[in-house]
Design goal:
By secondary structure, the chain is an alpha/beta fold. The chain contains 11 helices and 7 strands. Strand 1, helix 1 and strand 2 form a beta-alpha-beta unit. About 50% of the residues are buried. The mean pLDDT is about 100. Bound molecules: nicotinamide-adenine-dinucleotide. Nicotinamide-adenine-dinucleotide binds next to helix 1, helix 3 and helix 8.
Length: about 250
């Protein structure tokens, strides 16, 4: 059985991923701001360092997989908090564990979103990909929740596509799942937010399969990509969204 690390395992999609990995007999090391093996705030540079150090001390022989799942939805404020956790928290932990994953030819599954393709590239996504946290945060605090959230997930997806070849050369597979609306505390908070609540409810009502996702729907896909069943899959972004992305972008893939 394998040894896996993840962030954001306390609630929602992350809790379902943790439960599935445990049910498959794996060891799981969880980082979160609450209810976790390692308590760390991934919105800060110090928290990211302590998350990586905590995992390293528990898995010195390497990791079979890593899922940077912690994230904030569009109801979080200030907007730059979304940027800090969703992009910089995910990338810093992934990069910080890269050598541990190389040791065991591990698999990384990042969490994007089906909102990632919905906005164009701009100076915000450019600042994210350049690793300029101060600039990205200053830019987004002047904009809106949707740009903060979708832009953070767009940049995570582009970072993954840009780095999957180098990771593959170390034997590490690097993929993402892009969930659609999934019933979690993040969505509950978004639904009651005055800025994005109505748009979230309208989006949920238009899912082609006629329902929102459940955390286990997403966990199943994440665990497939982590497993040897996906041994030839890397650099992929797998939409698990009830058909929304295909409905909205039929000619792009
Ligand atoms: P959630 O709120 O249930 O889970 C998020 C987790 O991240 C929680 O355990 C939370 O404690 C943790 N977290 C938040 N801030 C943190 C911080 N500063 N440091 C450490 N941990 C922190 O939400 P969820 O919907 O399960 O979200 C999981 C992932 O899925 C996120 O990356 C989210 O963006 C993504 N996602 C969710 C949806 C959806 O509709 N629910 C859709 C697309 C993508």
């Amino acid at each position: 059985m394998g040894i896996y690390a993840m962030t954001g395992g306390a609630t929602g999609i992350g809790a379902a991923i943790k439960a599935q990995l445990l049910s498959e007999g794996h060891e799981v090391i969880v980082v979160d701001i609450k209810d976790a093996d390692i308590i760390a705030d991934l919105s800060t540079a110090e928290g990211r360092v302590s998350a990586v150090e905590g995992i390293r001390s528990r898995a010195p022989e390497g990791l079979d997989g890593f899922v940077p799942c912690a994230g904030l939805g569009p109801a979080a404020r200030p907007y730059s908090l979304i940027t800090r956790v969703n992009y910089f928290g995910a990338i810093a932990t992934t990069e910080g564990l890269r050598d541990l994953l190389a040791k065991r030819k591990g698999s990384i599954v990042m969490i994007s979103s089906n909102s990632a393709p919905m906005l164009p590239d701009d100076d915000y996504t450019a600042a994210l990909l350049a690793g300029d946290e101060d600039k990205a945060c200053a830019l987004i605090d002047e904009r809106d929740a949707n740009q903060a959230y979708a832009g953070s997930k767009r940049a995570v997806s582009q970072w993954l596509r840009s780095n999957s070849t180098a990771y593959a050369q170390q034997g590490i597979r690097l993929n993402a799942v892009a969930p659609g609306i999934t019933q979690t505390p993040l969505v509950d908070a978004s639904n009651s937010d005055p800025e994005v609540g109505q748009a979230m409810k309208d989006f949920a009502a238009s899912v082609p399969l006629g329902r929102v996702g459940q955390p286990a729907d997403i966990a199943q896909v994440v665990c497939f990509l982590l497993s040897d069943k996906a041994a030839f899959v890397t650099g992929s972004i797998f939409f698990a969204d009830g058909g929304h992305d295909a409905m909205l972008r039929p000619m792009q893939f």
